[in-house]
Every structure is written in C-alpha cells, then in structure tokens.
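Input record, target 12 of the design panel.
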C-alpha cells in the first residue's frame, strides 16, 4: 500500500483510507452489522490501510462508537480521523438538515468544540485524535469566524488532544482563512471522476500551502463500481439519493464506460472499482491526493485496497479522463 505524508504534520498514512460513514447506518445508509464493520476495520489494517475516517454525525455517534471498539487494543496501528462542528443536541447554529428525528446544525464555536472533543474521545475510547476535521463550514444565517475556530483547534493541538487539523466542504476564501490562522494539514472534499469541480478550486492551493487533498465519495457512492445498470435494484438511502448518476439513463452510460474500459481491466488485472480508485489517487500534483473508500463489509475493503496497489500508466489515466468527459 502506498503511504504518504499528511500536510506538514509529520503524520504518515495510507494513501487510501477507510471511510466509516456507512458504518453509522441511519437513514443515510440503512442498517449496519456492527460486528461485520469491526472485522472490516481489522481487515483493512491487515491489507495495509492505516487511515480510518469517521464523524460524530455518522449515525449520530454510532460510527465513532463502532470504530472505537474496533481500535481498542490496536490504537497505535491506525491513523484516526474524526470531525467536529456538527450538533444534533442543540438549536444554536446554522441548519444543515433534519433527519432521523433530529435537527442537525453547524456550530464550530470554541465553547461547543470543547464539548464535542470530549464526547468524541469517549466514543472512540482514545485520549488523542490524529486528525480533527471541521465537518461543515458556518452558514450566513449563523456566521462564526474561522479565526476563532482555528485558534481553539490550535490550542487542542498544543494540549496533545489532536495531532493535525483539517477542514471539509469549504470554499477558497475559507481555505485561506484556515491557513492564515494556523496550520491546516488536510482538506476533505467530495471528488470523483464524475464530479471534478474542485480540481481548479483546490489542487493548486493545496500544493502551494502544503495541504493534503482528501477525496470522499470517489466511487459516487457505488455508481463507479460498475455493479449497477438501468435494471438493477438499488437500496437507496439518503446518501445515494443525492447522486444523480443513479438515474437509469446515466447508469446506462456507466455500463458503456465499463465495457469500453474492459481492455484496461484486463491489462491491470483489476475491477472497475480498483481502476477508478487508482485513477483518483493519481490526480492532483505531487502525490498530494488521499482517497477515502467507504466500506462496512470485508469484500468491499478487499476490493477497495486493490486501488492502492496498482499503478496506471499516464497515457491510460489521460484516456480515462477523456472517456469520462465524453459521458458527463
């Protein structure tokens, strides 16, 4: 498994990480088997994946609890990332969404983060976090200065409770506010070969400021596995319902793409999942892209890991981009 440095933090992690969003279950993904999820996290480490990414909002704390159980007695073998700035137990904040009977708000004020960090440490059964990521940024109806958020995160770092700071779902102006008020080591954004909008926005900035770019949903929540066609029955939770590529006519385009890539699948001896993940990891500049592959079952992580173990020729990477642009 390819390894990489996370920003300027000195932390080394696998270039392919395990995303634990689905492990939380809830209305986003549907019921999850916790015992199987724990086995999947253990299998990931056996296969060379060291980075595990979770968040309090995933299952309203459940994903963190499961990850905590999985890492018990093995904490030093993993690079553990979780997030902050999202609450479902308070009304104070900018509305993110309502689901599973609660209103979820954005609030990254130091007072609220001081509560959140302790709850996450408890659920994860650890006394430190390798990466602490602000999950969603403040809204216009409830603005909060990033300078104050970053100031508090730097205090947590000085206290040894976190080792590095990240931010997710942000714009260029917010990126600059983070780097101007502390050490930002990673940003996490939705990015896939079907959704490349953030390339121009962040790839250059990340390179310039020594910040790792981390892609989430690189498989478009299952679409780019190539396992679904127009006639497929798909169990659609909230997470998949937000992906326009699950429309039948667009799934047909993905199947056409898979057929076109059959020579590449044979050339590299891989599945479409592995090929897509390898392509995603090869983007950006200077080996600066980290990729999260979601998994809660052992076969899923065993397939994902192949994407971190193959090297695709530059000419093939370029032709894949051209092929995708033609169907987008």
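The sequence produced for target 12 reads:
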């Amino acid at each position: 498994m390819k390894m990489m440095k996370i920003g300027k933090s000195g932390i080394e992690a696998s270039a392919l990480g395990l995303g634990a969003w689905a492990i939380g279950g809830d209305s986003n993904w549907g019921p999850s088997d916790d015992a199987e999820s724990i086995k999947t996290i253990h299998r990931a480490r056996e296969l060379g994946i060291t980075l595990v990414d979770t968040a309090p909002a995933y299952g309203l704390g459940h994903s963190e609890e499961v990850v905590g159980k999985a890492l018990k007695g093995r904490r030093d073998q993993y690079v553990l990332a979780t997030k902050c700035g999202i609450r479902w137990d308070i009304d104070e904040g900018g509305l993110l969404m309502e689901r599973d009977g609660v209103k979820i708000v954005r609030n990254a004020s130091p007072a609220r983060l001081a509560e959140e960090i302790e709850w996450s440490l408890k659920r994860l059964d650890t006394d430190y976090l390798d990466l602490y990521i602000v999950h969603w940024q403040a809204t216009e109806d409830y603005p909060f200065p990033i300078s104050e958020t970053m100031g508090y995160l730097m205090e947590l770092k000085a206290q040894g409770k976190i080792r590095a700071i990240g931010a997710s779902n942000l714009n260029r102006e917010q990126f600059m506010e983070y780097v101007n008020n502390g050490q930002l080591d990673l940003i996490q954004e939705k990015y896939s070969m079907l959704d490349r909008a953030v390339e121009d926005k962040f790839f250059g900035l990340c390179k310039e400021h020594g910040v790792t770019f981390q892609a989430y949903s690189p498989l478009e929540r299952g679409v780019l596995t190539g396992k679904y066609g127009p006639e497929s029955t798909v169990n659609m939770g909230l997470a998949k319902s937000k992906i326009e590529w699950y429309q039948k006519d667009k799934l047909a385009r993905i199947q056409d793409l898979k057929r076109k890539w059959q020579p590449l699948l044979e050339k590299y001896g891989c599945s479409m999942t592995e090929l897509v993940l390898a392509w995603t990891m090869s983007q950006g500049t200077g080996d600066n892209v980290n990729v999260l592959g979601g998994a809660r079952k052992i076969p899923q992580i065993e397939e994902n890991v192949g994407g971190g173990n193959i090297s695709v020729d530059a000419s093939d990477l370029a032709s894949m981009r051209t092929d995708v642009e033609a169907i987008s």
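The chain has a mean pLDDT of 96.
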